[in-house]
């Protein structure tokens, strides 16, 4: 793996974001984390000199965003806030109106956005059984899916100058899983912890692969794979 890099992470205290930050630091990278509540960060992580925390929310104007982006090599958004997204598409507003303009101003090209496995890819449809899941057991997450889909539509239609990837994965738990994760535009799979490391990030083709579809029972493996993708 190449030498240490600088990551800017939004959603660093969420279910996936906390794993991403932990693994990035474990690999020796520098992480700039923007969080609503710094007290939710793991106290052990806060002791790491490579972690730099700024308090802020994507629902507000982040006046220091250019300062955060400057010198950053990779920007990662793993944003949740289901309650806010049930009434407003806050993620697409942030990505479109604040984040991507800042990336362009500062010449940062790589952006990873975490969406949900039940969010429909831009220009495509979900498989039938995933549509059924979305409209039954996952119905309460409709606001998040609509927001994710708006982000994907914006990136796919208006941000092709940015080298972005949308990581679409359903989060089940942090427990083990069975099978082998494979890269696909229209299929899903569940992977064991380390099998996933070489899949999403496996080759330079991942750079241009717009969507990754994976229903997972573990978050850590794919988070690690995302870090590796950023460092290809």
UniProtKB/TrEMBL annotation:
Molecular function in Gene Ontology: oxidoreductase activity, acting on the CH-NH group of donors, NAD or NADP as acceptor
Chain ranges passing through the membrane: none
SUPFAM superfamilies given in the database record: NAD(P)-binding Rossmann-fold domains (SSF51735)
Pfam families xref list: NAD_binding_10
Domain NAD(P)-binding: 11-176
UniProt record similarity statement: Belongs to the avfA family.
Protein name, as recorded: NAD(P)-binding domain-containing protein
């Amino acid at each position: 793996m190449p030498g240490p890099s600088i990551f800017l992470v939004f959603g660093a205290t969420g279910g996936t974001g906390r794993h991403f930050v932990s693994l990035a630091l474990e690999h020796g990278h520098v992480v700039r984390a923007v969080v609503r509540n710094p007290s939710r960060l793991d106290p052990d992580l806060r002791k790491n000199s490579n972690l730099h925390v700024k308090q802020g929310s994507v629902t507000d104007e982040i006046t220091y965003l250019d300062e955060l982006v400057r010198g950053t090599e990779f920007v990662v958004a793993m944003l949740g806030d289901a309650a806010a997204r049930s009434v407003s598409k806050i993620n697409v507003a942030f990505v479109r109106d604040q984040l991507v303009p800042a990336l362009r101003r500062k010449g940062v090209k790589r952006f990873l956005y975490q969406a949900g496995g039940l969010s429909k890819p831009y220009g495509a449809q979900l498989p039938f059984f995933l549509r059924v899941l979305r409209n039954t057991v996952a119905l309460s997450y409709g606001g998040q899916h609509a927001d994710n889909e708006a982000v994907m539509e914006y990136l796919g239609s208006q941000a092709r100058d940015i080298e972005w990837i949308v990581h679409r994965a359903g989060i089940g738990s942090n427990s083990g899983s069975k099978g082998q994760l494979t890269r696909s535009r229209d299929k899903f799979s569940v992977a064991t912890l380390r099998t996933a490391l070489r899949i999403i990030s496996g080759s330079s083709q991942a750079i241009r692969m717009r969507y990754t579809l994976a229903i997972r029972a573990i978050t850590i493996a794919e988070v690690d794979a995302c870090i590796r993708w950023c460092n290809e």
